[in-house]
Amino acid sequence: MNTVLVVEDGLTDMEIISRYLQQAGYSVMSATSSEEAQDKIEKNKPDLILLDVILPGKSGFEICRELKSNPNTSKIPVVFCSTKNTDVDKIWGNMLGADGYLSKPIEREELIVVLNRLINK
């Protein structure tokens, strides 16, 4: 079973995204801050990371840049899930190495399509 780390500080969004993932057959880990996310990534090496942009501590953009520049984590797909959904935000996420960018509110079908594409590469 593939494991997805959901990094989200909004409890409602966390619950909705986690439920969608579990219904689609994914194992879900969660983190509500950049520090907690980095700890879980180091210990568990998820198959994919869903990352909010606005988080306590480091931003999702900063976390993504660090993950993609580290040889131990650079191959883990990162998908942003954020209310920050302007073209500039999406371009910035892409420049930092993100593999996808979903706008909130998250649509179940879109989420599953993106994850299946990235995990089953």
Q: Can you describe what's shown?
A:
The relative contact order is 0.18. The protein is an alpha/beta fold and 121 residues long. The protein contains five helices and five strands; from the N terminus they run βαβαβαβαβα. It has one domain: 3-Layer(aba) Sandwich (Rossmann fold), CATH 3.40.50. The mean pLDDT is 94. It has a five-stranded parallel beta sheet with strand order 2-1-3-4-5, with helices on both faces.
Sum up the structure in keywords.
121 residues, Rossmann fold
SSE order and pairing:
Elements: E1 3-7, H1 11-23, E2 27-31, H2 34-44, E3 48-51, H3 60-69, E4 78-82, H4 87-95, E5 100-103, H5 108-119
Parallel strand pairs: 1-2, 1-3, 3-4, 4-5
Condensed summary:
The protein has one domain (3-119): Rossmann fold, CATH 3.40.50.2300. 45% of the residues lie in helices and 19% in strands.
Measured by DSSP, the beta-strand proportion falls in: 15-25%
Specify the number of helices: 5
What fraction, in percent, of the residue positions are helical?
40-55%
What overall geometry do the principal axes of the alpha carbons give?
globular
CATH architecture: 3-Layer(aba) Sandwich
Instruction: Classify the oligomer.
Output: single chain
Overall average residue pLDDT: 94
